[in-house]
Each structure stands twice: as structure tokens, then as C-alpha cells.
Write a structure and sequence with these properties.
- The protein is built from no helices and 9 strands.
- It is an all-beta fold.
- It has one domain: Sandwich (Immunoglobulin-like), CATH 2.60.40.
- Strands 1, 2, 5, 8 and 9 form a 5-stranded mixed β-sheet that branches. A 4-stranded antiparallel β-sheet has the order 4-3-6-7, with no helix packed on it.
- A hairpin with a 4-residue loop joins strand 1 (2-10) and strand 2 (15-16).
- It starts with a strand and ends with a strand.
- The relative contact order is 0.30.
């Protein structure tokens, strides 16, 4: 079974980013639309088919109003954090 989660961290403030809208789109269209919890975390979906997915974030940044990542997933659990600040962002495949 394939699943996907995320974690948004506001590195400018040094804390999780709560209430960030996150949308997951798969090969066949929209899969999930969630908001991060008080710890900046969100479970996007379980039971996903392997393939190409897009994750779109609407972070609390005066510069980055929307950040989209395109990822390829196979079997297993995937965790894709977003680190955001006023004028920079980064992501990586977490565990």
C-alpha cells in the first residue's frame, strides 16, 4: 500500500505552519485537499497507486503564495516536507 504525508515548517518563525492548505492531484485528477494541523502535519492519502503526483501548498509567505511539487511514488510510505520562510523554500523526501 502506498501512502503520502507532509509537514510544513515555517523556518522564519522556527515553528510548524498550521492551517496551510495542501492539495494532492494524481494521474486521474484531484485526490485530496487538506489543511495542516497545529503541528504542521497532514496525511494526504493512503491506498495510492504508484505514479506521478502533484502536491500544491499555499504557505504563509509574502513571496511564495503557492508552491507545487511533482513527485513520482512507488510502493510504501512517502513523506514530503516543505520548509518555508519569507523568501525561500525547500523540500525533500522524508521518512
Amino acid at each position: 500500500m502506498t501512502s503520502l504525508s507532509t509537514h510544513v515548517l515555517d523556518t522564519a518563525l522556527g515553528r510548524p505552519a498550521a492551517g496551510v492548505r495542501v492539495e494532492l492531484t494524481g494521474p486521474d485528477g484531484p485526490v485530496a485537499a487538506v489543511e495542516t494541523d497545529e503541528d504542521g502535519r497532514a496525511e494526504l492519502a493512503g491506498g495510492l497507486e504508484p505514479g506521478v503526483y502533484r502536491i500544491a501548498f499555499w504557505p504563509p509567505s509574502p513571496f511564495f503564495t503557492r508552491v507545487e511539487l511533482e513527485i513520482v511514488i512507488g510502493d510504501g510510505h512517502y513523506h514530503v516536507p516543505l520548509l518555508i520562510s519569507s523568501y525561500g523554500c525547500a523540500s525533500y523526501r522524508g521518512s
